């Protein structure tokens, strides 16, 4: 779970991660992604939901948030050097568990185009394409997705 002292490191992770997004599609929005993930913005989010992080040694390599009111997952960023190694799936499973513990029957998210396949492999279904994040985080081409959560005995 996120500790306030990790806010700067999480913010740097977001900056590092957005740099690998396709510039032709996301270029105009990269600064906005970063400005919505400053240490202050991360700390201000805490009363609204939870933030989870994955740490390798002393380094934050992934982060994800769950907004209780919107019942949405967002702010999932994985260090590019850790992508494809299973860390994303583990944190996604953990945040889904938290959603179930908070009574969510389903959870939504707004995915960047490059991440859609990852979410589909993990049970999310596309609702519609090329929506705008709007008030959730930032503008930009995204795919709205949702997943039905089944209760577990954990």
Overall geometry comes to globular
Termini separation: 18 Å
Q: In DSSP terms, counting alpha (H) and pi (I) runs of 4 or more, how many helices?
A: 6
Poorly predicted runs are: 134-138
Structural class: alpha+beta
The major sheet is characterized as: 6 strands, mixed
Strand content: 25-35%
Overall number of strands: 6
Rg: 14 Å
Average predicted local confidence, pLDDT: 85
User: Biggest sheet, strands in spatial order?
Assistant: 1-2-3-4-6-5
**What is the oligomer described by this structure?**
single chain
Order of helices and strands: HHHHEEEHEHEE
What's the helical proportion of residues? 25-40%
Task: Give a topology summary.
Blueprint: H1 7-18, H2 23-26, H3 30-35, H4 39-45, E1 49-56, E2 59-67, E3 72-78, H5 87-101, E4 106-112, H6 116-121, E5 125-131, E6 142-148
Helix pairs in contact: 1-4
Quick rundown:
It contains six helices and six strands. With 154 residues, it is of the alpha+beta class. A six-stranded mixed beta sheet has the order 1-2-3-4-6-5.
Give a description of the structure:
There is one protein chain. The protein has 154 residues and is an alpha+beta fold. The protein contains six helices and six strands; from the N terminus they run ααααβββαβαββ. A six-stranded mixed β-sheet has the order 1-2-3-4-6-5. It is globular. Mean pLDDT is 85; it is low at 134-138.
Relevant terms:
globular; 6 helices; 6-stranded mixed β-sheet; 154 residues; alpha+beta
């Amino acid at each position: 779970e996120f500790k306030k002292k990790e806010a700067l490191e999480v913010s740097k992770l977001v900056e590092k991660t957005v740099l690998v997004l396709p510039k032709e599609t996301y270029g105009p929005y990269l600064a906005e992604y970063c400005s919505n993930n400053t240490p202050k913005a991360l700390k201000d989010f805490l009363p609204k939901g939870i933030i989870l992080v994955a740490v390798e040694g002393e380094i934050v390599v992934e982060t994800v948030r769950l907004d209780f009111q919107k019942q949405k997952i967002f702010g999932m960023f994985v260090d590019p050097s850790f992508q494809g190694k299973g860390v994303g799936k583990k944190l996604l499973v953990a945040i889904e568990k938290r959603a179930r513990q908070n009574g969510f029957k389903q959870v939504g998210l707004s995915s960047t185009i490059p991440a859609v396949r990852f979410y589909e492999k993990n049970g999310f279904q596309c609702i519609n394409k090329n929506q705008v994040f709007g008030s959730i985080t930032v503008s930009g081409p995204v795919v709205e997705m949702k997943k039905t959560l089944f209760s577990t005995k954990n």
